């Protein structure tokens, strides 16, 4: 494993750090198998199908906003054809699982916690780690959706800004299957948007009109399975659609510093029923 001693400095200069060989093949295999079980047990009618178009937005909002303290599957946007039928088997149609597996599922918890991650996040400058969110991202073959330029601090507003993203490659990620692209040093640009919830509806609020980086400023982060990419909450990043025949599974954790004030307007809230915790 590469040295992570200078992690904080690298987040300040580049906005991200790539740590190869962080997770073993066995740990990855266990997480992938558990994710497959969750998808297998998932009933698609819970997330689609039986409501009128007028209800659709409200329902989608509730399904998403309610997922912060539980485990839910979300479909790829292109999962269904014009007749509402899945184009690919269910197991190849899910965009992601979110957002509390690290607290509710023993296999995910094992992958997401421990002294190694605790030490790493402290070296990133977070003294009181609060792990708010986990996401298992499938980036399915052929239909894996694009994720446009954004900054993760948009979704995890703290004062001061503290959110750090841990992005674990569960498979090789490269330009052919929709790897991450980042703007090196882009964490020095302002936060463009803040995502807030008002009256149980989530919406983006524009904070700054700085344009997203041009293609020339984007750098692909091509990594092998087992690599951990750590990035600053204000680092602009995106990923392209996956039109290849190979999936691009990844797992992410979002961590803020408990010493900072976590906004009540953030979509993901925790309460005494499922309090936010650290890595150990
Ligand atoms: Fe992101």
Structure description:
The protein is an alpha+beta fold. The protein has a single domain (4-262), classed as Jelly Rolls, CATH 2.60.120. It is built from six helices and 15 strands. It has helices spanning 7-13, 25-41, 53-65, 101-104, 106-112, 115-123, and strands at residues 16-19, 71-75, 94-99, 129-137, 147-150, 158-159, 164-169, 180-182, 193-198, 201-206, 219-221, 228-232, 237-239, 250-257, 261-262. A seven-stranded antiparallel sheet has the order 1-12-7-14-4-3-2. The protein has a four-stranded antiparallel sheet with strand order 5-13-8-11, with no helix packed on it. Strands 6-15 form a two-stranded antiparallel sheet. β9 (193-198) and β10 (201-206) form a beta hairpin. The longest helix has 17 residues, at 25-41. The protein is globular, with a radius of gyration of 18 Å. It starts with 6 loop residues before the first helix and ends in an 18-residue tail after the last strand. The model has no long low-confidence stretch (mean pLDDT 93). The structure holds fe (ii) ion. Fe (ii) ion (FE2) binds at residues 150, 152, 237.
């Amino acid at each position: 494993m590469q040295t992570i001693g200078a992690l904080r400095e690298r987040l300040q200069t580049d906005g991200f750090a790539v740590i190869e060989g962080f997770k073993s093949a066995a740990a990855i295999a266990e997480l992938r198998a558990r994710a497959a079980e969750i998808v297998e047990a998932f009933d698609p009618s819970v997330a689609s199908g039986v409501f009128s178009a007028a209800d659709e937005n409200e329902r989608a909002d509730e399904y998403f906003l309610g997922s912060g303290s539980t485990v839910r599957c979300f479909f790829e946007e292109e999962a269904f054809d014009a007749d509402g039928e899945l184009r690919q088997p269910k197991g190849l149609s899910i965009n992601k699982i979110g957002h509390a597996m690290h607290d509710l599922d023993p296999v995910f918890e094992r992958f997401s916690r421990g002294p190694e991650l605790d030490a790493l996040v402290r070296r990133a400058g977070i003294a009181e780690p609060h792990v708010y969110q986990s996401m298992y991202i499938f980036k399915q073959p052929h239909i894996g959706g694009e994720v446009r330029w954004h900054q993760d601090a948009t979704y995890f507003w703290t004062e001061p800004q503290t959110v750090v993203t841990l992005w674990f490659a569960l498979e090789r990620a490269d330009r052919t299957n929709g790897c991450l692209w980042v703007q090196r040093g882009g964490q020095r640009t302002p936060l463009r948007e803040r995502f807030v919830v008002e009256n149980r509806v989530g919406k983006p609020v524009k904070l700054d009109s700085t344009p997203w980086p041009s293609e020339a400023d984007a750098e692909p982060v091509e990594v092998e399975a087992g690599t951990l990419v750590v990035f600053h909450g204000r680092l602009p990043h995106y990923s392209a659609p996956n039109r290849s025949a190979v999936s691009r599974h990844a797992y992410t954790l979002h961590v803020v510093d408990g010493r900072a004030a976590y906004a009540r307007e953030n979509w993901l809230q925790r309460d005494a029923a499922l309090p936010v915790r650290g890595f150990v």
